[in-house]
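Student: Hello, beginner here. Can you help me understand the protein record under this note? Any guidance would be welcome.
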Amino acid sequence: MTIYLNGASLDFVQIDKIINHHELVAIDQKAIQQIMSSRQTVERHILAGDVIYGINTGFGKFSDQLISNRNIETLQVHLLRSHACAVGEAFSDRVVRLMLLLRANALAKGYSGVRPDIIQALIDCLNKGVIPVVPSQGSLGASGDLAPLAHLALVLIGEGEAVYKGKKLSGADALSAAGLSPIQLKAKEGLALINGTQAMTATGCAAFMDMTRLMVAANRTAALTFEALRGVEEAFWDESHQVRVFPEQIQAAQTMMGYLKGSKLTTHQGDLRVQDAYSLRCIPQVHGAIQRVMNRVQEDLLIEINAATDNPLIFAQSGHVISGGNFHGEPIAFAMDFLGIAAAELATISERRIERMVNPQLNNGLPAFLSAEPGLQSGFMITQYVAASLVSENKVLAHPSSVDSIPSSANQEDHVSMGTTAARKAVQIIGNTRRVVAIEALCAAQAADFHGSEFLAKETHAFYQEIRSLVPFVVQDKSLSASIEKLAEAI
């Protein structure tokens, strides 16, 4: 099956098929006319001798520097070479493939003034498995993700570096190995390739998809922990959630009740206690609020992946060429900061449940630190330390990037979003949180064994069996690092 790009209808279902299941991509033929009309508008302005930013002028502070027609194409190549100075660890193959996809989709919208050949070049790399090497540090998140996208674009002209079938090659060699040829840039096309938000948005999409899977695991883990601690189930009854109205909170409570249906370990008010600690009682309120953030982040990402984010924008119908600021990453910077904060909170409440399971003063009769021989063996004592360390690290990482700005280009670009930094931090936080949830799942399964797994609800027992298929009951002290990582990977 081929997925067709038109710059308006790409969604996460399609993204999953393309990125995770390697569906092929093509330009929607209905979009070609708009793309061509936009390109023809650029060429008419060049013939008329009009001065237009990025077409026959320099860039940034050099925007008032006029470029002669004979140097217009050279200008585009110089742009890519000079801007490709990002540093640090390379983005993952998945994120780079997302960059190729999202930049192609943005250009297919038909307001960037490029030829279809440029879009096809991006699609060819995606379909053929040519993955540009893109360092992850160096974007300010305004004027687009200039440095990362320049590394991406260099490969299209046969420069830079790319990975093909697991081998790092020069851009030219990677294209050749895949049966592709370098493209020749025309006016505006180099700028159109790099003046967008696709590094931050691609990173954000990957983070969001990871967080979506993590939320499912976190809900299942919380339900198993709830049984391990003999939770009071009235806290999840529908009546109290309906009167607060938040739909995500209502859904979270219903999800918990669904997971716990038939449990012989949950309790009622007055059986063992009247009410639980907040980390149990408030699961719907906290997990629901996190889901609400995710819904908003998804909405913002869907808008951005179908947006025209370069500069200038070419409007064929009116003939206008508008130099504006759609490359500014503020919406995605806010979304990624918010996603990072939400993920950090998911880890924070998870760690508190871990503490309750291992602490003999809080765990309702479970062995101290879930140890088979308390005292002689330390059991899960230090897993809580690890979770606490990850939670503390998340608190540092959750400081919003979007409140920062550093002027650039001789103060011409005097306010920036730091959106790519926000997205990269969100990825780190989600990775930490995945390990915290894995530790909680490890502890909850151990606690379930002490209670008797046969008393679990049907749904939580199925989850317990998934955990046990990966890690066994801990009879004797051993290093748990591999078990934690194995569960985190499964999550």
In short: The chain has 18 helices and nine strands. The first helix runs from residue 12 to 21.
